Structures are given as structure tokens and as C-alpha cells.
Amino acid sequence: MSVRTRTNHKSLPLTPSHGNSAGRGPVAIDMTEQNRVIRQNAYGGPEHISLESEAVPSPGAGEALVRVHAAGLNPVDWKIAAYPAAAEAFGVPVPGGYGHDFAGVVAAVGDGVSEVAIGDRVVGGAGGAAVADYTVLPAAALTVVPDAVPLAVAATLPIAGRTAVAAIGRLGLGPDDTVLIGGAAGGVGILATQLAVQTGAAVVATASPANHDFLRGLGALPVTYGEGLADRVRGVLTGPLTAAADLQGTEAAQAALDLGVAPGRITLIAGGPLPGTLPTGGGDAPEGALGRLLDEVAAGRIRVDVEADYPIERTAEAVSRLREGHVRGKLVILTGAE
User: Fold this and answer.
1) pLDDT at position 336, please?
2) Three-state DSSP class for residue 265
3) Percent of the chain surpassing pLDDT 90
4) What is the C-alpha R_g of the chain?
5) What is d(CA 322, CA 326) in angstroms, rounded to the nearest whole number?
6) pLDDT at residue 52 is higher than 90
């Protein structure tokens, strides 16, 4: 990963905070400070990633400047970087910045901002601008993070959390259901498994054998993915399979169809569509879903698993690990801010 510096300095006006949360004050910013940003300089892999330095941006009207503490990586991040069609679909230019999910502290606000105040701990999504020391986005797009939730944990939730909420919520699960979850040890899958267990449904979860004990600890019955999945699921059932959420391709969805699940009770978030099933994404999550999920994490009712964290200087290494697959939970980039 190369390192480059841009020298376009500019001053950063600080708008005084209004309505700060108790115990929080203004965040001091050195006017000569530079903003380290990760950039993807060409379509392809992490060999095209560089760490660059540019001026700290200023928030405009309705915007907030956030001092990023952590950025959570998602598979879609490297796919945007690798494939023009994905970059176009998500509106993230290449060459450009990197990542979507982040958490940090509000450092400045523009005119007319009432949703957050300087010093607030927040989480949000900034397409192509998350892996940096500072990022600017509409204040209305931020969610305040409970004090009990570490920012590195909060940074894993914007995409994965909303997607898990949507994938399980659309199934309308209850105690009479048995649901199959495909890809249950991934970033979305761990959350979806716990949300499904909370409904009272019996949960059958696919993963590699190395993650079976972990999934048992979440209240699920694990089975190994791969050829013959339908037979393995059938072997652990004590009643009919009634629903499925496939979070990694279509293998689990197809197994559910083979086992008699109605297509309208199968959600998919990746892979090609299957007739009658429900393609689902984070955009299908109800308003306020991220805040409610953060409250669940703060109360200890939902756990988040971070496989590893990396300093911003090692972002290319983290992306390489993400592209390899089989990550349990999430990978997080840390900027070094406290």
C-alpha cells in the first residue's frame, strides 16, 4: 500500500455545539491537521489501495464532521473496488475513497443541524468515505451510539445490522417456526441467528465445522454447508422446516425449497434470485432499526463478533483477508483516535 500526501490545506470553521449530551464537550481540532484517507486508485484488489493525506473537510449546512474511530469492512466494499458494475450500482466512484460503515465522535456541525451535537458518539454510513480520520455526511443520517457500546463494535452494524433485521423481520417468525439460516457465522449471519432465536423459532444454521460450537452458544443447531445440505438439515429436524434466510448465495435457499418451504418465506441477500423468494437488503429494514439494534447490544441481548482489527495503515491487509472469505463476524479498521 503506497502512502501519498495532498497539500491542499484549508481552515475548518467550528460551529458551536447546541444541546450537547451531558458530559461531552467540543472536540478540539488542530487547524493544521491532515485527514488520512484510504483510496482505491483503480478497479481491482488491495494492490490499488493507498493511504493519502488531505485537508480536513468542513461540514456544510445540515452536515456533521465526524472524527472516525473505527470503520467496519463489508464484502460489498471490496466488490465495489473490484467491479465497475458494483461501483455504479452503489454510486461509489473508483478511483475514490473506501468503505461505508463507520463510528466516531462529532467534531463539528454545519448550519441548521439539530440531530446531533459536538461530542456525540455516532455511527453511520458514508459510501466511499468511511476509512479515514474524518468524514462529512448529513447529520440526519447519523445514529447516536449508547455509551455501553464500544465504537469499534458500533462500526460493524450499519450494513450488517440493517440487513440482518430485514432478512429475519420479513419472515415473520414465531415459536412455531423452524428456520434455516445460510452463512450463519458471517457478519450478517451472527446477528440474524440471534434475532431469529429471539423470536422463539428453532434455528438451524449453516457454517464450517470450526464455527459449530460458536453457533451452539448463540442458541442455534449448526450444520455444515456444502453438497448434501438438504439431507443434513433433514437429519436434525424434529418437525417441518418453515422458513429460511440465505445470507451467502442460494445454497440454503435451494435446500429449503427442496424441504418444502414456501418461496415466500425465504429471504436472500446475495446470489441470483429464485422464483417467488424475497430478495432482501438493508434498505428493507424499518426506520430506526439501527438504533434499536444498538440498544440490544448495549443491553447484552445481542453480541457482535469482531474477528480482527487493523490500524488504518494496514487496510490493504485487512481487505485481502476479507476477500479470502470465511471471516467469522467482522473486520474493523481503527484510526487510532480515542
Assistant:
1) 82
2) helix
3) 84
4) 21
5) 8
6) yes
Across residues 223-231, what is the average pLDDT? 96
Read off the pLDDT of each residue in 325-338 and give the average, rounded to a whole number. Answer: 88
Helix (H) or strand (E) holding 316, with range, is helix 315-324
E runs forming strands in the chain: 2-5, 34-40, 49-55, 63-72, 96-97, 101-109, 121-125, 134-138, 143-144, 178-182, 202-207, 221-224, 243-246, 266-268, 278-279, 306-311, 330-334
* pTM of model > 0.90: no
Instruction: Evaluate if residue 198 carries a pLDDT over 90.
Output: yes
Tell me the residue length of the chain: 338
CA distance readout (Å), 289 to 63, 106, 186, 202: 22, 21, 19, 23
The pLDDT of residue 273 is 77
| HSE (side-chain half, CA atoms, 13 Å) at 181 | 33
Cβ contact 181:189 at 8 Å: yes
DSSP class of residue 146 equals P
Question: Smallest Cα–Cα separation from 74: which of 297, 278, 285, 333?
Answer: 333
Place of cell 414465531: 174
Contact 218, 194 (CB under 8 A): yes
The number of helices, as runs of H, and strands, as runs of E, in the chain is 10, 17
d(C-alpha 102, C-alpha 98), whole Å: 11
- Nearest 5°: phi and psi at 203? -120, 120
The span from the CA of 7 to the CA of 36, in Å, is 12
